[in-house]
Design brief:
Oligomer: single chain
Strand order of the largest sheet: 2-3-4-1-5
Structural class: alpha/beta
Number of domains: 2
Strand content: 5-15%
CATH topology of the largest domain: Rossmann fold
Number of strands: 5
Length: about 350
């Protein structure tokens, strides 16, 4: 999805504009909402609103007044702004550590050469450990320069309560599939593909970005869903035949096999969700419209109770996968106890 355009979130944008207009900025915000919904994009656009030279000189307050061409706007777009500090967990680390927080604080102090805002954006802030969170909050409570911190998270409950109590929480809600569909059409995606992707997003445009940029991935996903639908309709023997193509015995290392099974289980739950929607006459919310005929066959063949039982079994299998049970055994157990 094109990162230059924010889809939806007008309520959030209006709220932030009002904060600027009325000079009622908070020291710290939490942008909370499901993954891929556009929170980080809004955080960067908010930084542009605060720092855009043309906007500041014109004393304007709307996001539409951001010029996108001044030095500040260009630096923010290229992630090289001396006033915007983006923090995220290192892939090799479990948390955002207190050392990272202290390093950030030092950078703030050494780069405070004027009175402009310094913006801290912490991506996936639920990865902050307690020490890092407390160090950053102490700086905010006793700021030597104007600082606005934005904590972007998809799991607010994982944040320390001391953090939540000292911030202004802004909740982001799912983007309607119609909005995502229209944006995909604007980007030149054909209608059939745009329909599938807009529903597959489940309200988060970021979730389908990889499918937009790589058409082969979507074809691969459609192939997986077709196999899973066939598996549901198959007898025991054929289930194992199909299952062997989904999760081969020589799929690689334990972790690779586990990841492959995790993808299968997540996709399988979405297939069964579609079946339940059909059984509830809620056809408009179905994701996998490219296998609609087969989904209708499954919906007429199995009861809602049976589908619910199978979904519970898959959820149990996902939990077993986290306890290092052999992925192949987990999958075979589902196939046998269908």
């Amino acid at each position: 999805m094109n990162q230059d355009k924010i889809i939806h979130h007008a309520t959030v944008l209006n709220f932030l504009e009002a904060a600027v207009k009325n000079n009622r900025l908070a020291h710290a915000y939490i942008f909370n909402g499901q993954e891929g919904i556009g929170k980080f994009m809004v955080a960067k656009r908010f930084a542009s609103l605060l720092l855009c030279a043309k906007r500041v000189n014109a004393k304007a307050t709307s996001f539409d007044s951001i010029c996108h061409v001044c030095a500040s706007c260009n630096q923010i777009a290229k992630d090289i702004s001396p006033e915007v500090f983006v923090v995220k967990k290192d892939d090799a680390k479990k948390y955002i550590s207190v050392d990272m927080a202290r390093d950030l604080i030092q950078q703030l102090l050494t780069k405070s050469f004027d009175e402009r805002f310094k913006i801290i954006i912490i991506d996936e802030a639920h990865n902050l450990n307690a020490g890092a969170a407390n160090a950053l909050l102490k700086t905010l409570e006793e700021p030597s320069i104007p600082v606005v911190m934005i904590l972007v998270t998809s799991n607010i409950n994982a944040l320390p309560k001391t953090v939540i109590s000292r911030t202004q929480v802004i909740n982001f809600f799912p983007v309607p599939s119609d909005n995502i569909f229209r944006r995909l059409i604007e980007l030149g995606i054909d209608r059939d593909r745009a329909l599938i992707l807009s529903r597959l997003a489940f309200g988060s445009p970021g979730k389908v970005l990889r499918y937009v940029t790589d058409s082969y991935l979507l074809n691969d996903y459609k192939g997986l869903i077709t196999q899973l639908v066939d598996l549901v309709m198959a007898g025991l023997k054929d289930r194992f035949v199909i299952g062997a193509t989904l999760l081969p015995h020589k799929a690689g290392s334990f972790n690779e096999t586990g990841q492959a099974l995790g993808r299968v289980l997540d996709s399988w739950l979405l297939v069964l969700r579609d079946v339940m929607l059909l059984q509830s006459n809620n056809n408009q919310a179905i994701v996998h419209v490219f296998v609609l005929d087969k989904l209708q066959t499954i919906a007429s063949k199995f009861s809602i109770a049976h589908i619910c039982k199978l979904m519970r079994k898959i959820e149990e299998s996902k939990r077993d996968l986290k306890t290092n049970v052999l992925p192949q055994l987990i999958f075979e157990n589902i196939l046998v106890n269908f």
